Amino acid sequence: KQEVTQIPAALSVPEGENLVLNCSFTDSAIYNLQWFRQDPGKGLTSLLLIQSSQREQTSGRLNASLDKSSGRSTLYIAASQPGDSATYLCAVMRDKLVFGAGTILRVKS
Amino acid sequence: GAGVSQSPSNKVTEKGKDVELRCDPISGHTALYWYRQSLGQGLEFLIYFQGNSAPDKSGLPSDRFSAERTGGSVSTLTIQRTQQEDSAVYLCASSLGTKVGNTIYFGEGSWLTVV
Questions:
Q1: Which A residues in the span 62-101 are in contact with B, Cβ-Cβ below 8 Å?
Q2: From its phi and psi, is residue B79 left (phi > 0), alpha (psi between -120 and 50) or beta?
């Protein structure tokens, strides 16, 4: 059974810092890994999708990496801003998504 | 439509009543998923539909829960004889498929409160 773990559970940083969110999964037989953002009271917004054959994807200040063999992914956020404050969810996909519990990020101004 | 649309956005119901939650996926998306997020909990898979294949119902928590997808588009999640523990956000998502490279897009959710 696939299990996804995210570390840290919560993170508070001052504005402008670069930060890394970690995700690990137990079964490397995945099609994709997807990072989402969830704001309070809202649905999920897709940030990045990495296919199983890819190593990384970038979108603006976000960079996600994937090491499928070791079952790890990281989400790097450069020059963090207060608007980045949200819960970040990692999910792996093989037919359906299996989610981690998320990292609650607070960026202080 | 432009995104995944869910209705109602909020529903308060009395314990024991049945509720129906509706999901309109992105046009052309053949895969449709239902997830549940309870307060302070992670996302729990309920069911997914892919094209004309039999749905994967492995996540439905009890036989009070059922879902259907008509015409390969709109889906309805039905909860019969609701219980207080059914209170949660029910999230629907869709994608072009379930294989490599298909981004999954979520709706804003239906917030269900059972009193």
A1: 89, 91, 93, 95-101
A2: beta
